[in-house]
């Protein structure tokens, strides 16, 4: 069974940075899609960044502030987030898809204070 474990969340002031990491239990080459999603209190889960067949896309709200990248050697999918705002607060989830099946981590909390 594929396991994804997120880390790197925490509390930060607006304008700060965080790097989230997702450790994947299997070789990243086996997934055609990996990405990061977030869910703010009372809101639907939304996609933040995704790598699909080597094509990277970002939500409009994070373009220019976030960067997603894979570390094949460490089997990790990382999300660097800069110039954080209070709107970035939420639980961040890592996702990996293979053969049409989605795998999710348990999430890591990001809290941005004004």
Describe the structure.
The radius of gyration is 13 Å and the shape is globular. The mean pLDDT is 97. It is an all-beta fold. It has no helices and eleven strands. A hairpin with a 2-residue loop joins strand 5 and strand 6.
Low-confidence stretches: none
Give average pLDDT, whole number: 97
| Quantity of strands, as a count | 11
Element-level helix/strand string: EEEEEEEEEEE
Q: For the record, give the distance between the C-alpha atoms at the N and C termini, rounded to a whole number.
A: 40 Å
- Beta-strand proportion: over 45%
The number of distinct helices, counting runs of at least 4 residues, comes to: 0
Structural Rg: 13 Å
Shape descriptor reads globular
Report helical residue fraction.
Answer: under 10%
Structural class assignment = mainly beta
Largest sheet, if any?
7 strands, mixed
Give a nutshell description of this structure.
With 114 residues, this protein is an all-beta fold.
Fold topology:
Elements: E1 4-7, E2 10-13, E3 18-24, E4 33-39, E5 46-52, E6 55-58, E7 66-71, E8 76-81, E9 90-98, E10 101-104, E11 108-113
Parallel strand pairs: 2-11
Antiparallel strand pairs: 1-3, 3-8, 4-5, 4-9, 5-6, 7-8, 9-10, 9-11
List its salient traits.
114 residues; mainly beta; 7-stranded mixed beta sheet; 4-stranded antiparallel beta sheet; 0% helix; 56% strand
């Amino acid at each position: 069974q594929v396991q994804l474990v997120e880390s790197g969340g925490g509390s930060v002031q607006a304008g700060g940075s965080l790097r989230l990491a997702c450790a994947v239990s299997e070789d990243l080459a086996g997934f055609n899609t990996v990405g990061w999603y977030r869910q703010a209190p009372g809101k639907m889960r939304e996609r933040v960044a995704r790598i699909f067949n080597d094509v990277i896309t970002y939500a409009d709200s994070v373009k220019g502030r976030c960067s997603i990248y894979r570390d094949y050697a460490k089997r990790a999918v990382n999300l660097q987030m800069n110039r954080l705002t209070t709107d970035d607060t939420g639980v961040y989830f890592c996702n990996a898809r293979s053969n049409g099946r989605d795998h999710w981590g348990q999430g890591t909390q990001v809290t941005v204070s004004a």
